[in-house]
């Protein structure tokens, strides 16, 4: 990572999805060591089961989320924070009756995520709104991998 130039990144540069309710910041492009989603979901919305080769930390800003981490299901409300370790299958869903605003911080300067039904290599730019199940390019998790191995790293060994 090189020198970071002080600047403000405009909403228009990082908003994604047709509804324009989710922000996706990928740190590498801006000299940051993290990436994040700022998600605004309606009741029942959330990403499909997925995992990363690094940890992810969520903070609920508004509403209520049911967070699945491995076999555990947790309820997080405004002000609560939860963490999932590397390579653990996880998801969240808006389990409340109003909107869910949640910050999803990825301990990586690039997004790398594998959905239950496919593999996402480092993204470049996420083309659809986070919080809706989507297929990624690559193969299923059942022992097959995308280019360069799971998550693009030959050393990763998931279950």
UniProtKB/TrEMBL annotation:
Q: Which domain of life is it from?
A: Bacteria
Domain Cupin type-2 per the UniProt entry, residue ranges: 39-105
Q: Which UniProt keywords apply?
A: Isomerase, Metal-binding
One matching Pfam family: Cupin_2
Q: What Gene3D superfamilies does the entry give?
A: Jelly Rolls (2.60.120.10)
GO terms (molecular function) for this protein are:
isomerase activity; metal ion binding
The annotated region (Disordered) lies at 128-159
The name this protein carries in UniProt is: Mannose-6-phosphate isomerase-like protein (Cupin superfamily)
Q: Which organism is it from?
A: Nocardiopsis metallicus
Q: What phylogenetic lineage does the species belong to?
A: Bacteria, Bacillati, Actinomycetota, Actinomycetes, Streptosporangiales
